[in-house]
Design a protein that fits this description.
single chain; alpha+beta; 6 domains; seven-stranded mixed sheet; four-stranded mixed sheet; 42 helices; about 45% helix; RNA-directed DNA polymerase activity
Length: about 1050
């Protein structure tokens, strides 16, 4: 717009082009150009629905995840996969076979889908004329095949959409397709400024200029390499060198591979981790042999070490090459080798990297440095006098891309990385050719001479090592007045200080059109954003209440489909939504209390992590005045004095100082002297004492723990629960029935609304004053409440009559709502004629009845009860086939290969009485044929379920070690215990019991910990429950007690079968 009334010109864009999602899906490559204005203020708009861009040709091969779901794919891998020492050749040959198989057998998903839809339509037309069993069976077969094709289509678009937060269950093909098109359009580079300042849109020229830009970026910049003093790094200790030098095992390789995200973008070979994970039984041997060969001195094949570079925009509208971030797409096998090394570095590096480096190092938090920066700025602002202070903020431009390979090698030598491992690392870095994936087409190849690849698992550790050698590390952009995104320069944190956080959450949610997402999807999305963005700032700042209220309001409006100035009806109040799921809520958190949990973590770390750099800064800044907790050791603490036993009883105070130390109440075998404690303590206090692990050398030095957490380590979750538990409703097992269901999230959210009696029926609408009548619009009944819609309405009743057995119908149609729900949701009987779990079918049918009612009212779509039942049965069969898939049994072994002939089996379990909190442990030891060796039970008083499980294992291990057994397979039905005991760094856990068990398992003999189903652990469960009723100290059974004989024989028969 040209302003002719005043001097100068005023420019404002008046001419725009708008399009909806349907139009963009129809013309995904459309572009809008603004042409020069000549005789008017307006600029003509040119819309090109088919721009003259080069059609991508020569795109690299990409493995499709859907192939692994095909029934014949396993046979293809078994017959065509061959490994003869050269992995690149093997993959190339297998790729040729896969392409032929895809063309001849798998085919194009879209074509198969159209053919099946056409066949289904023809069958249904024929059935409209005359029904027959043959046509009905044929319809079922075609429906099943179509469902399989739709699952393949969903997986295809899910793989392309790069969207990980959605779960399987809903057919999200349209969403994934739209997401993929948007991502491709955003990543497509149409025009840029060249180095001479000219604007260029020729794709061939741009691709060549991009290669030149990266050749310059990764080109050597000559700089002197000074001699580095040998003592600049602490040398690796002998045990760490031995750990890095030890041979790579098959278990180590498998663990590294299965820790990879299955559907991340693949490298130049086209295979992602999902292929190797799903076909591990067929290709795992070759993969392990190849990886071990690399560590034995073999070189990387150039085809597997080739990296595809993807240019990711660092701003919304980049206009030159410097505004892109080069990300390397490495082959899975290359990343596998690097991840094996990275996993070892992860264990070793925390002992040698200085505390200033807070990122990428296990056990450290990058927010610690924010606290240090706050303290430095506060110190500078509060100091008086003439002395001036200066803070300098530094940034490293293209830090990863400009790291010298020579400097990396010098860093590896300085810290003492073994020579063979250095050779593998430098060979992987320096032998890699690169290609730019320019608009999905590879460019010409070039060779870098410096830099490390963003996307390689080892790159963060190499970068840390180089920055450690230089003496400083700054690894992200710093905005004015902020450090790591957190404001520094402020007097008091106010709402205006953190207004940008509110806008960030609002813009993130506004990017998703709430009207196009179901309630279940809005809830899932809100949960992923609601705590993630503000949670980062809560780790180091006290967030004002106004900020928390504004954020909660934004999320509330989004959940119910509203927006600023356009609120929607909230079916359930925010206070109810913030209740735990077991109390009728959705598990959202009040931000104010969530923030307080983080602040309590700072306070806890202030007294428990005295060696942390930020704590030392705080102490020094406060002149050493932080000493509000004095910790007594096991040698100085008195049993009734200090803080060892907080009974709060008056008579305890009179005993302080009269009785001996804690160690005097411990027997030589390491257990409490119950007889002596009985003299002084009542039963309820004694229960608390015996549940505390007695002092033991395996426990390490005494330290501060967080008692409200089962692991004794501070956790935000346990702190939040402690702050809020008094405001929560009583727990109800009926809610567990809803949330344990593994079907679609939309069905679970629907049942949550039903149980809360918040479905927007006409009676509810009338109660809220938004409807004049509460009558049913379908059958004219005078009251349309939840029970009427889901059970009593004519169409609903007809549908239920088709599936509810006749003998059950009298009760089914007369129970009140809550009884009706509880009875049917907890009924797991199989329908004899359909083979479907009743609770699964009930959930889906209730949801479809509600959906059909809404389709009838708002879209005038009439569905029959027969169609509703048929669709529900199909859904139930599909979801039940997913739900009943067997759980993966996780096995962790201390030895590499075992011959189990001379091994014995220890089954352990813990039991906790819900009403009184009493706990006991039990276990049984069997030989390899399942015969009884011994059993035990042990009453522990009051403790958590996790501690009861650990006590059970500890009792069993100590008993077997005393009897001379050193080859034991431990079995437990608690997967959390298996995970904790299988992680090596748990030796440094805050939990004394956990530390003691770990030290025993790693010290003597060979032990294996294995997760088993509950059906295989019935004997140990019965023995633990005996301990609850008998309430005795550790008791050994040489023969099975009568009350466990039946369970013992059942488990023995189960294991034999």
């Amino acid at each position: 717009m040209i302003d002719r009334q005043q001097r100068g010109n005023t420019y404002e864009r008046l001419d725009r082009a708008l399009a909806n999602d349907a139009w963009i899906s129809a013309f995904p490559h459309s572009l809008v150009y603004h042409l020069p204005h000549i005789k008017s203020d307006h600029r003509p708009i040119l819309l090109k629905t088919r721009p003259t861009l080069n059609v991508p040709r020569g795109r690299p091969f990409r493995f499709l995840a859907g192939w692994t779901e095909h029934a014949n794919f396993k046979d293809l891998v078994s017959s065509k996969w061959r490994y003869s020492g050269n992995m690149a050749v093997s993959l190339s040959e297998f790729t040729s076979h896969v392409k032929d198989w895809d063309r001849d057998t798998y085919g194009y998903i879209g074509t198969r889908k159209r053919q099946l839809l056409r066949s289904l339509g023809n069958i249904q037309k024929a059935m409209d004329q005359s029904t027959s069993r043959r046509l009905a069976n044929l319809e079922v077969e075609v429906r099943d095949e179509l469902e399989n094709v739709l699952n393949h289509e969903e997986l295809l678009w899910r793989q392309k959409a790069r969207c990980d937060w959605l779960q399987f269950g809903d057919k999200n093909t349209k969403f994934f397709h739209r997401r993929t098109m948007q991502r491709r359009k955003f990543n497509c580079i149409l025009a840029l400024h060249l180095s001479n300042g000219e604007w260029c849109s020729e794709q061939d020229i741009l691709s060549d200029e991009a290669v030149k830009f990266l050749e310059n970026l990764y080109g050597e910049n000559p700089s002197p390499m000074y001699n580095i003093p040998s003592n600049i790094f602490p040398s690796l200790e002998e045990q760490d060198i031995d750990f890095l030098k030890k041979a790579v095992t098959n278990d180590e390789i498998k663990k590294a591979l299965f820790n990879m995200a299955p559907l991340k973008a693949s490298g130049s070979d086209g295979y992602h981790a999902h292929f190797y994970q799903s076909q591990w039984d067929l290709v795992g041997g070759a993969v392990c042999e190849w990886v071990q060969g690399i560590f034995d001195g073999n070189s990387f094949e150039e085809e597997l070490n080739n990296s595809l570079i993807v240019l990711i925009s660092k701003k919304e509208c980049p206009d030159d090459f410097s505004q892109f971030r080069p990300i390397s797409l490495c082959s899975v096998l290359y990343k596998l080798v690097m991840k094996v090394i990275a996993n070892r570095f992860k264990v070793v590096f925390p002992n040698y990297i200085f505390p200033e480096q807070a990122g990428f190092i296990a056990g450290r938090n990058i927010s610690d440095n924010v606290i240090i920066a706050h303290e430095v700025i506060h110190f500078m602002r509060s100091r008086k006098g003439d002395k001036k202070w200066l803070a300098i903020k530094l940034d490293l431009e293209k830090a990863y891309d400009k790291v010298s390979w020579k400097f990396i090698e010098v860093s590896l030598v300085a810290i003492g990385i073994p020579k063979r491992l250095r050779k593998v690392i430098m060979n992987a870095i320096s032998s890699s050719p690169m290609q730019i994936l320019w608009n999905r087409v590879p460019s010409r190849s070039f060779k870098p001479v410096r830099g490390i690849r963003q996307g390689c698992p080892l790159s963060p550790y190499l970068f840390i090592l180089c920055m450690e050698l230089l003496g400083y590390l700054i690894n992200s952009e710093i905005k004015t007045g902020r450090y790591l995104g957190v404001p520094l320069f402020h007097d008091r944190v106010t709402k205006s200080t953190l207004n940008f956080v509110i806008e960030k959450v609002r813009s993130k949610l506004q990017n998703w059109d709430a009207r196009k997402l179901s309630l279940a999807r809005r809830i899932t999305l809100a949960q992923s954003i609601f705590l993630a963005i503000p949670g980062y700032f809560m780790q180091s700042l006290a967030i004002p209440k106004g900020v928390c209220d504004s954020l909660e309001k934004i999320v509330r409006e989004f959940i119910w489909g509203g927006s600023a100035g356009n609120p929607k009806i909230a079916l359930v109040g925010w206070e109810s939504i913030c209740q735990p799921k077991t109390c009728g809520g959705l598990g959202f958190r009040h931000l104010q209390d969530h923030n307080n949990s983080f602040l309590m973590k700072i306070s806890f770390n202030l007294v428990s992590r005295k060696d942390a750099l930020w704590v030392q800064v705080q102490v020094r800044n406060m002149d050493g005045r932080i000493s509000f907790l004095s910790l007594f050791t096991r040698d100085s603490a008195r049993i009734f004095g200090n803080i060892y036993l907080r009974c709060g009883l008056s008579f305890v105070k009179t005993l302080c100082g009269l009785l001996g130390m804690v160690l005097q109440f411990v027997l030589p075998d390491g257990s409490w002297n119950i007889d002596m404690l009985h003299i002084w303590l009542s039963e309820d206090i004694l229960k608390r004492v015996v549940s505390i692990p007695p002092p033991h050398l395996d426990g390490g030095e005494d330290r501060i723990i967080w008692a409200r957490s089962g692991s004794s380590s501070f956790s935000i979750r346990s702190t939040y629960w402690t702050l809020k538990e008094n405001s929560w409703r009583p727990k109800d097992d009926n809610w567990k029935i809803i949330w344990k269901y593994q079907g679609p999230q939309r069905v679970r959210i629907f049942l949550w609304l039903v149980t809360n009696q918040r479905l927007l029926t006409n009676s509810e609408r009338s109660r809220r004053g938004i409807a004049q009548s509460s009558a049913c619009q379908r059958c004219d009944h005078n009251l349309e409440d939840i029970m009427h819609v889901l059970c009593d309405c004519l169409m609903a009743k007809e549908a239920w009559m088709l599936v509810v057995p006749p003998e059950k119908q009298s009760r089914f149609f007369f129970d009140p709502l809550q009884t009706w729900l509880t009875t049917n949701l907890s009924c797991h009987l199989k329908l004899q004629d359909k083979g479907i779990n009743w609770s699964c079918l009930f959930r889906i049918m209730a949801w479809r009845i509600w959906k059909n009612m809404n389709l009838f009212i708002f879209q005038n779509i009439h569905g029959t009860s027969f169609e509703l039942v048929k669709a529900s049965l199909s859904w139930a069969q599909n979801f039940e086939s997913i739900i009943i898939k067997p759980k993966v049994v996780v096995i962790f072994s201390g030895a590499q290969q075992h011959c189990f002939e001379n091994w014995i089996h220890l089954s352990s379990d813990g039991a906790v009485a819900r009403m009184f909190g009493n706990a006991a442990a039990g276990g049984v030891v069997r030989d390899r044929d399942g015969n009884w060796i011994l059993g035990y039970t042990h009453y522990m008083g009051s403790c958590s379920p996790l501690e009861a499980e650990l006590w059970s294992i500890l009792d069993g291990v100590l008993t077997l070690m005393n009897k001379g057994y050193k080859r034991v397979k431990i079995q437990t039905d608690n997967l959390e215990v298996v995970r904790l005991l299988s992680t090596k760094d748990v030796v440094d856990s805050e939990n004394t019991l956990l530390k003691r068990v770990k030290r025993l398992l790693y010290s003597v003999g060979q032990w294996e910990i294995k997760h088993v189903p509950r059906e295989c652990n019935l004997t140990a469960d019965q023995l633990a429950k005996i301990g609850l009723s008998w309430q005795t100290s550790l008791r050994i059974f040489e023969v099975p007690p009568d009350v466990v004989v039946t369970a013992f024989l059942q488990v023995k028969a189960f294991n034999v079968s």
